[in-house]
DNA sequence: CACTGATGTAACCGACGCTTACATCGAAGC
DNA sequence: GCTTCGATGTAAGCGTCGGTTACATCAGTG
């Protein structure tokens, strides 16, 4: 009765992948707090002990989801960077990729920022996160070296990151007042805010 | 055996207030996820059912903490606004007050932004939050009317709010890279970021 | 000094995270 | 083609949690 079970009943077939997908659906439908190993198992029509064959704990399941989230984030940023070469434009594209990802994958974003619920230090999450930050620092260092930055690179890095993160969370928490909760509109507003800030710190030749 | 019980044992005396204070201590020591009505009761040397005389649920307890947090935030902002009259300076002071509050009361900040764990709509929280936002919008409208704003007020409002919120959360999540976790240093960095951004959108006469 | 309302206790409920013993399957080796 | 075995699922159980309820103890009032 499951989605992807080829044969009869006993073995699910691909429970691990199914659990990750079902967790995302559960978060979108009921919220992060309702994620329970038992609940995920129940929704997949499987016994309450089955998940533990694939995942040792609730935290481990959410960490798997967070790793999927990080992969999608990296893919989104890579796509946004495609064909962009000017360093400050690359920084801007990175911000765009992050916001697209966060707004279009709210459940993933929610999980990856729930530091108390996932194992951020173990797993590649810390490393991937640091790599992203380092990439952005490099982009700004290059831009500064070319005299295109009207402010200190460290300043732009911290402000840009805080701005993007704040915008994403405000959307997630329904803090965009009149724009309602329409994701497409929120994406436009957020990206415009980033662009506007970067225009302020860009040196026009 | 409790801290503030005047007489023997049976009645605590001021359990409600004690629970709120103990919850804050528990969050600072063990994290928000470990907050449990039973655990709070245990730490106060009281039976597991006692808290329910004062609070109907875990969410209600955290909502009480959030209300205390909101009071402190309002007080901090009021203090920052004292004697400041220029509208754009008032906006800046509001941001400073928020950051001081968030960085010096990390547990309170954590609770108030845990929308899934508190009753944000009931209780005065939604109203107080909206009032704050309205005040900031007014500050910027006045500044714009005086020709002091180099950008659209709505733009500065959303960017300023996202920036402050993002900075506060980055500190809470330990995202300030080399500045370590020293709250005083983080406060300086965050406030400097706000000031720097506002300087960019201020029209110098 | 009995009564009463407020406050704390104790015992209980279903659900949860997690463990363990056992059942069932697919595939490999003979 | 049969057996064996590792991987995967089930069933039952442990301790704890959030929350409820019946009862015990207190402080103040008539």
Beta percentage of chain A is under 5%
Number of strands of chain A: 0
What is the domain total for the residues of chain A? 2
Query: What do we call the CATH topology of the largest domain in chain A?
Result: Tetracycline Repressor, domain 2
Residue ranges of chain A: pLDDT <50 for 5 or more in a row? 1-7
Which class of the largest domain in chain A in CATH terms? Mainly Alpha
According to CATH, the homologous superfamily of the largest domain in chain A is Tetracycline Repressor, domain 2
Largest sheet of chain A at a glance? none
Overall pLDDT score of chain A: 91
Give the H and E element order of chain A.
Answer: HHHHHHHH
Q: Percent range for helical residues of chain A?
A: 55-70%
Question: Could you walk me through the main structural features you see in this protein, from its secondary elements to its overall organization?
Answer:
Two copies of one chain form a homodimer. Chain A is an all-alpha fold and 205 residues long. The first copy, chain A, folds into two domains: 15-53, Orthogonal Bundle (Arc Repressor Mutant, subunit A); 67-200, Tetracycline Repressor, domain 2 (Orthogonal Bundle), CATH 1.10.357. Chain A has eight helices and no strands. Chain A binds a DNA duplex (30 and 30 nucleotides) through residues 7, 10-12, 15, 36-39, 46-50, 52-54, 56-58. Chains A, B: InterPro entries: Homeodomain-like_sf, HTH-type_TetR-like_transc_reg, HTH_TetR, MT1864/Rv1816-like_C, Tet_transcr_reg_TetR-rel_C_sf. Chains A, B: Residues 13-73 form the HTH tetR-type domain.
